[in-house]
Automatic annotation (TrEMBL):
Gene3D superfamilies: RHS repeat-associated core. PANTHER family: PROTEIN RHSA-RELATED, PTHR32305. It comes from the Bacteria. It holds the Pfam family RHS_repeat. InterPro entries: RHS_repeat, T6SS_VgrG/RHS, YD. It comes from Escherichia coli. This is RHS repeat protein.
Amino acid sequence: GLKRVVKKEHADGSVTQSQFDAVGRLRTQTDAAGRTTEYSPDVVTGLITRITTPDGRASAFYYNHHSQLTSATGPDGLEIRREYDELGRLIQETAPDGDITRYRYDNPHSDLPCATEDATGSRKTMTWSRYGQLLSFTDCSGYVTRYDHDRFGQMTAVHREEGLSQYRAYDSRGQLIAVKDTQGHETRYEYNIAGDLTAVIAPDGSRNGTQYDAWGKAVRTTQGGLTRSMEYDAAGRVIRLTSENGSHT
């Protein structure tokens, strides 16, 4: 069948490549160094059953008839296992070291757990809004963290028991534009019209960022006060890197 190849260019100029089969399932991913990872989907469900890394090491994945993951085995032979109730909710997870985590539910109509318990009996509890947003989390020591959300479901504040809070602000496109703590320290984020993150301004005013051209390629990056420029050929490959000191590669 027809295969589709998608190339992705990153801010540093590196290129990764993904190959999909005729029905859109990911089959291979090749990193900037040319190393390829292979993905083997089930022919019926399309679920990934095997991932093989560039060095030939494989991980295997197994599912129930509801397409839920029941076990996964890594290249080292270690396995995780999952069990579900009749409603399809995760009720138990066994880690590679044998530790078991159990999940409790207090609402028969919700897939969101109200509590988890580990092998030692330590219990963590959660409360949720009717829209599925996490409202509070109580750890095994009894410390409570509370979360606020806006009408769009975006998290706007995190309140910890010690009186430490973090506040988040978003623009009209739902992009995170500022994070502020209780002491007033603020980190700001800027974007271009395409929605690419172009700058992160730290509380001390230092600025890290990336400028893009009209095709979405990174043409200038600033990190820790150092600036680097990139030039591309017609095929979109980086042909010239210029550092702040004028050196070329």
